[in-house]
Each structure stands twice: as C-alpha cells, then as structure tokens.
User: Which sequence fits this backbone?
C-alpha cells in the first residue's frame, strides 16, 4: 500500500504538469484544444510502443477497453477546452467531482469496501478543495466543460481498477493511447497550429506529463483498491497550485494553505487506513 501511495503522488504531479503545458499552448500560442488532446495521445503512443510487447494489442478486441479509452479521451478534450477560457483553479475545482464519483462507483459497481470514516475523509478533502479555490460557479460554458471532464475522469478511474486484471499497466496504457489517438486523429490533424520551438516543446511536455502520469496511475490502481487511492487524486490540485505559483507567480494565501493541508491530510489518512 505504501508504494501505491508514493506512485500516486508522482502520477498526480505529472498530470497537472501536462495540463499546465496544454493551457500555455491554447492560451498563449492559440492552439486548438482538440490538437492538444490528440497530440497527447499520439506522442504518448509513440513513446510507449517500444516498451510494450506485441501481445498487448490483443486487448483491443475487448469492448471494455474501448469504453475506458473513450472516457479518457472525453475527459482530456473537455478539460483542455475548459482551460482555454477559465482560470486553472476554477477548472480544477469543478474537475474534482471526479474522485467523488470514482469513490461512489467503485463501491456500487465494484463492491469495494467503504467505511464511514473513509467517506468522511473524502468529504473533508473535498472541503479542502473548496477552501483552496473558493469557486464562484456561475454556470459558464467553461466550468460546465470542467464538470463534464470530472465526470469522464471519475468513470475512467473506476474503469481502470475494473479492468486492471486484463493486462499490465503498460499494455492498458498502450490501448488507451492508441484508441483515443485514432478517434481524435482526423480532428487533431485538421487543427494543427503554426509550429515553433516553443509550441513543439510544450506539445512534447503536455504529452509526456499525461502519458507518464496516467501510466503510473494504472500501476497504483493495480496495487490497491480504488476506494483507498481515490482521495490521493486530490493531490493534483496541490501540484497545480504549486505549478501556478512557479509559472505565473500566484502565491497561495492562508486560506489556500489551510485547504491544501486538509486535502493532503485527508487523502493520506484515508489511504493509510487498514482493512
């Protein structure tokens, strides 16, 4: 369980790093969200293919593998579209409906163990999220897209645990990259940006952060139940806050530090609870 926790922390740092690169692409360099989403999958697939055995491609015959990959494709496309127009903190606040949904789906559909204490810690962690971002949800299209991204992501997290016995993390990661890249390819190729060294570097960083983060997430979910790891997904918000500070100079205030303490404390406490 301890190794799964460490892996989750690394994964949850890499994913928002990829999102930060994607936001720079769409906000600063005018790239289309569909290009950012597709390039993530296409480049991730190219980077991963040399390390995955040929037998992994047989998983593509399973419809559940396609369902899981399409959930991830919908989530990444939705969040990149939201990040184009909305502040990073507000997007992540709406996006964090995902861990709550994953926790509930894993209990209802996968029959994984749920306790009152762990459920209370989940709610405490979500309260910490609200302290960090203090969102004023006005129902704007961008925030609705972020909510949709969170729903897609919650389903993806649960499906990852559901399908983990079908193959290794590398094999499952290969299938999600291949399927999503194939589905989005016509749209991504039609929206190619004007390339520059900056655009190329950010495109690579976006793909690498997303691919490695989701691969490590699969490794963690293969080692521990989703209901125990779901709270640690909140660490994405802490990582996003740190990246925002480093890149944009947004210094967290006292309320933000209090919220981050709740998020990390509740997540660690929940994950460390024994059977």
Assistant:
């Amino acid at each position: 369980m301890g190794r799964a926790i460490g892996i989750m922390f690394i994964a949850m740092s890499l994913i928002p790093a990829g999102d930060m690169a994607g936001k720079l692409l769409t906000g600063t360099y005018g790239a289309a969200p569909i290009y950012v989403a597709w390039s993530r999958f296409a480049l991730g697939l190219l980077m991963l293919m040399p390390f995955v055995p040929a037998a992994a491609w047989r998983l593509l015959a399973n419809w559940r593998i396609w369902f899981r990959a399409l959930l991830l494709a919908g989530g990444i496309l939705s969040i990149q579209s939201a990040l184009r127009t909305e502040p990073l903190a507000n997007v992540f606040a709406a996006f964090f409906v995902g861990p709550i949904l994953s926790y509930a789906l894993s209990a209802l559909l996968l029959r994984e163990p749920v306790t009152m204490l762990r459920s209370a810690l989940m709610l405490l962690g979500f309260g910490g999220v609200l302290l960090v971002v203090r969102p004023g949800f006005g129902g704007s299209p961008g925030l609705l897209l972020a909510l949709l991204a969170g729903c897609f992501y919650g389903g993806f997290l649960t499906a990852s645990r559901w399908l983990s016995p079908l193959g290794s993390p590398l094999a499952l990661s290969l299938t999600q990259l291949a399927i999503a890249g194939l589905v989005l390819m016509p749209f991504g190729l039609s929206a190619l940006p004007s390339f520059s060294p900056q655009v190329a570097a950010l495109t690579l960083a976006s793909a690498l952060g997303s691919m490695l983060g989701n691969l490590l997430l699969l490794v963690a979910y293969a080692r521990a139940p989703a209901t125990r790891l779901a709270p640690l997904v909140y660490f994405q918000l802490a990582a996003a806050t740190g990246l925002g500070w480093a890149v944009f100079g947004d210094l967290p205030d006292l309320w933000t530090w209090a919220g981050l303490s709740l998020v990390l404390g509740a997540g660690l406490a929940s994950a460390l609870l024994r059977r």
Notes: Residues 197-223 form the longest helix (27 residues). Residues 2-118+136-226 form one domain. The mean pLDDT is 83. The two ends are 11 Å apart (CA to CA).
